[in-house]
Design a protein that fits this description.
Helix content: 40-55%
Strand content: 5-15%
Radius of gyration: 23 Å
Number of strands: 11
Number of helices: 14
Length: 495
Amino acid sequence: MLRRVRTGVSRPFVALGAAMLALVTSCSTAQRSPDAPNRQADVAPTAPMSGEGVGDPTYPVLGDVVDFGEGKPPQVYDGYLTAALTDIESFWANGFEAVYGEPWTPLDGGVYAAWPARDEPIPGCGNEVSTYDEVATSGAFYCRAGDFIAYDDHELLPGMVKGLGAQAVAIVLAHEFGHAVQARTGDFDEPVILKEQQADCFAGAWAAHVAHSADSSISFDDSDIRTALIAMIQIRDPVEAGGLANPEAHGTGFDRVGAFQDGFIGGIARCATFFTENRMDQLIDVPFLSPFDDPNGGDLPLIDPAAAGDDIVTLIPASLDLYWVPLLTRSGFEFTPPTLIGFSLNEVPPGCTGLRRTDIARAAVWCPATNVIHLDMHESERLLSDRLSGDLSVAYLIASAYSEAVQTTVGTGLSGALRSLRNDCFSGAWVGANVPPTGADSIVELSAGDLDEAVVTLISHSDPTDDTDVEGAAFEKVEAFRTGVLGGLDACLGS
């Protein structure tokens, strides 16, 4: 939820062919079990992302990998999941000793599928047994007492597979396996947020093994890695959780994606340093502003029907002006801020010829001939109604198009994916300037969850493969955006 922090802001906006748009709130209601340690938070029973991937039903169900219980309703991903868990166990059997100097000890308590009518008991974690409702409340968890993993096979996994594909749930279980690793390294009593960061990193290390190794029994392609990043957003903390001040906090999607990337790039050895490298200083903590305290209910509207200017199309361009105009003026550049104009889906923005279809598909595109940012109003409305996106999703699109105007002014000379990634970094620098506490000249400030909205959106706008070279791969875009948010403009120009 972005919010205005300064009044008296005026910015012209023209909406072509678009009606006044109503607010759609997006707020998590996920709860977490008080009994199960290291549990997954904010995993939707039905994943909100579009997608048809359900795993490959040709994978045979491997015996003795998962305790399914008698009579479990079969799931199309059962075979894939047993293959993934077998691969995760093999990954640690081969890699643990090289980093930690001791041989790997296999999971002693096993892995349990929980479903409502299951008769066979699942070991307890603080109680004598774990009921289905307890597992479902947590989603998926590792319990050190008993050295076992349990997951919800009725709502959690089917929902994630339907929305994201079976690869997403493999990542979730790889994360839980990371907590089993911590139980073996003696790091299980570290602060929760750092344990969650390291478990995300371990999941990334395993994902890289799957993507790059011919020895893996399953495979990941570029689209699967995009799915994995979205899964990291899915298992973030609810924004009500109190941020880093909460001792049970698991972390934002923004930071969890960063930890996953660290593991993907640096492997197990990179993850092993998380408790000794001042990792807390690398996390960003944005306070939660209760949606009940805001008349918008959680997100700025796209257009304010009351014409009071408390909306995205007024505040975001004005905030970008306040950030960029003084910077460029001090550097000796003549810069005229672009105007924002709305257009309808699949229309060619009026007055701007020569645009490629890929430009229009960006949903916000800067036209150099007219110095106008054309914003797709229908796509913006969709983003405001999607559970994982919101007002900063639309703001990111506007900021990226604005950054295109900045690049042209300063003459970066970049093209293709490198240019798009510089836009991501510039957009991140602007976003970082609006993280509380903000400066006296700030118009808007971020609330918890906003960064995750932007990350989901930039991932969805990434190239389908590493060699497409138009927008940049998902990893590249996330890294560029995080560089800007955490390091500011100087970090972007040094990258």
